[in-house]
């Protein structure tokens, strides 16, 4: 029988968690990785209605695109999704921005709906491809290496994909000469050259957590002044980043693209700003709330930008730059990915029933 761990491994191939934005909370959020997996319910938002559907169908896991646990929580009490999921033994997995960035993920499905050429599209996010991690190298007495390593891990270091507590350790010898008037070395004596057996400890640190990890390092390290290196890592090109932009496979009118979107997304109405009587040669997409990508859209000279939602003043800016904006409402731009994801999981998890929720919908509608 497949397990929740098998689902996590399948999702790691489809939407690697390392692709997610630093601020996001993706992966397995609730549940026992070794629990049996029989049924998966897929939804954009884990609302009470969706959760009741999961309970009624006896789902083993809800794959909720948006993380229902986003920021750290101080308590888990009855009436919260996390409490109910633990009580009912229903796991929760969220891919969110990892799926946005992945090939064949949320943004590629939206780009397909618009008609952007698959061979010539690229990432839209101006931050895509920039470095997001550094490497911490420190030198620790053998007797203290586990204490220091665990402190670094608890502060956020040492995570690679679905693996945690990742490090590399090399034995060696350190030397030092402590000033006899101002030092009290943990090993040896001040005023003479000392040699100490040490472990070179290396681990990966997200840039957003560098300060916290360095504080933990200083607090846990036994030396008065611990030596360490902090190495900025070169960017990789594992993925295209967020959003997509590129030429259409065949130029099309705004009306044609709007019609395609309505059909692909299953909606009756879309919000349009800017010129509508035009032929679109280059288009950009950004699933969800991606109005901050407008500058990248304008730099790419896209004729049209499709996204979930955008601020009023950004829409005015786009229109004044002669760029047509098509807004779908937030989750409508993401929901088409669920059927594709269902089919991919069904192939990867033999014998597991994967169902797209029929109670999951955008909170807004045209009245």
Summarize the structure.
The protein contains eleven helices and 15 strands. It has 367 residues and is of the alpha/beta class.
Q: Going by CATH, what is the homologous superfamily of the largest domain?
A: NIF3 (NGG1p interacting factor 3)-like
Describe the oligomeric state of these chains in a short phrase: single chain
> What average pLDDT do the residues reach?
92
Number of strands: 15
| Spatial gap, N to C terminus | 46 Å
CATH topology category name of the largest domain: Udp-n-acetylmuramoylalanyl-d-glutamate--2,6- Diaminopimelate Ligase, Chain: A, domain 1
The poorly predicted ranges are: none
Which of globular, elongated, flat, extended, rod-shaped describes the shape? globular
Count every helix, treating DSSP H or I runs of 4 or more residues as helices: 11
Percent range for β-strand residues: 25-35%
Order of helix and strand elements from N to C terminus? HEEHEHEHHEEHEEHEEHEEHEHEHE
List the helices and strands and how they pair.
Blueprint: H1 4-14, E1 27-30, E2 39-43, H2 48-56, E3 61-64, H3 81-88, E4 91-94, H4 97-101, H5 106-114, E5 122-123, E6 133-141, H6 145-154, E7 168-177, E8 193-206, H7 210-220, E9 228-232, E10 244-253, H8 254-265, E11 271-273, E12 279-289, H9 294-299, E13 304-309, H10 312-320, E14 324-327, H11 337-348, E15 353-356
Parallel strand pairs: 2-3, 2-15, 3-4, 12-13, 13-14
Antiparallel strand pairs: 1-4, 5-10, 6-8, 6-9, 7-8, 10-12, 11-14
Helix pairs in contact: 6-7
């Amino acid at each position: 029988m497949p397990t929740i761990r098998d689902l996590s491994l399948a999702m790691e191939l489809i939407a690697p968690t390392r692709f997610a934005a630093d601020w996001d909370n993706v992966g397995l959020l609730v549940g026992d990785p070794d629990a049996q997996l029989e049924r998966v319910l897929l939804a954009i938002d884990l609302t009470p209605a969706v959760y009741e559907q999961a309970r009624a169908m006896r789902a083993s896991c809800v794959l909720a695109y948006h993380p229902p646990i986003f920021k750290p929580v101080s308590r888990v009490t009855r009436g919260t999704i996390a409490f109910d999921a633990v009580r009912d033994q229903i796991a929760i997995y969220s891919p969110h921005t990892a799926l946005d960035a992945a090939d064949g993920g949320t943004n590629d499905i939206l780009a397909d709906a618009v008609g952007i050429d698959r061979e010539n599209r690229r990432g839209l996010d101006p931050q895509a491809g920039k470095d997001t991690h550094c490497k911490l190298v420190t030198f620790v007495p053998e007797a203290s290496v586990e204490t220091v390593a665990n402190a670094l891990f608890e502060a956020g270091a040492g995570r690679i994909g679905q693996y945690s507590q990742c490090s590399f350790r090399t034995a060696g010898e350190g030397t030092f000469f402590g000033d006899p008037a101002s030092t009290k070395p943990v090993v040896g004596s001040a005023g003479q050259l000392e040699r100490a057996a040490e472990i070179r400890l290396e681990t990966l640190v997200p840039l957003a957590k560098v300060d916290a990890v360095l504080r933990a390092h200083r607090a846990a390290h036994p030396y008065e002044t611990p030596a360490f290196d902090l190495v900025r890592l070169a960017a990789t090109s594992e993925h295209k980043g967020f959003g997509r932009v590129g030429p259409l496979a065949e130029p099309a009118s705004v009306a044609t693209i709007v019609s395609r979107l309505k059909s692909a997304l299953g909606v009756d109405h879309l919000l349009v700003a800017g010129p509508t009587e035009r032929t679109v040669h280059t288009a950009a997409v950004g699933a969800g709330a991606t109005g901050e990508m407008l500058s990248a859209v304008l730099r790419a000279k896209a004729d049209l930008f499709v996204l979930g939602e955008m601020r009023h003043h950004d829409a005015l800016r786009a229109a004044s730059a002669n760029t047509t904006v098509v807004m779908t409402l937030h989750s409508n731009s993401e929901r088409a990915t669920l059927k594709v994801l269902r089919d991919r999981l069904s192939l990867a998890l033999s014998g597991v029933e994967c169902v797209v929720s029929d109670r999951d919908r955008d909170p807004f509608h045209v009245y």
